[in-house]
Amino acid sequence: MAHSTSTIPLIPPSRSTDRRRFGAGWSLALLLCVAGLLAPVAQAAKEYLQLFVAEPYLELHIGPGRGYAVTQVVPRGGSVDVLYRRTEWFRVRSERGVEGWVSQADMALTTRADGSLFTFDFGNRAGYQSHHWESGVFAGDFGGATLLSAYLARSLTDQLGVEFTASQFLGNASNGYTLDLGLSHVFAPEWRLSPFVTLGTGMIHVQPKVTLVQQADRTDQTAYVGAGLRYYWTRRFFVRAEYRSHLVFTSRNANEEIDEWKLGLAFFY
Asked: What does pTM read for this prediction?
């Protein structure tokens, strides 16, 4: 008696199916990697500075000012998270999740987790002596032309900083602008009236006005040295007077020297 046997042919998966599975696997792996990278960032973004109340209580106002009503009082031993700062007021969140504003005078009486007092820039003489950023605007004279100028500086130490200056000058024969980058050194940052020196390089772009003989615009590299005085005025503001001597490296046979005098108002933060 003959036995009949039947076989079921095995159909190998197509290459397109393999590619889809391979692509899906790589996509999943990529998503897991991105999620792993973003998770610490998201967690770090939610971390705030936690401070503890050392006085009998800490008042939270609904707005950044004494005229705003008090929404909550945090008792001694309670904690708040510092969200951000606006001038002389801090936005905080209590342990109960209530947000409010606290004056910098009250915040100075809080402590960190290790028991040390919370310190920050008050926007006074102490901040004038030691701060991270400053900027200001000036008016003055640039080689006989009217000068308008602005600068931004980043402090490296209490005495040394990096400055970027952008200026525009308007003269009878030509207009133009300058861009400078250099270092500044303050000799006595703790003095209300303190001298400083500057040194740097930059560029100047000159646009001659229309005359009988048309002259082309020109752009040249410059170097400068300078000196000045700064005077602490009030809160975050100070007055700054400065002189700079610019050496213009022209494409002609002789270089040019231009004197710059300016006076302006600056602030630190």
From this structure: 0.62
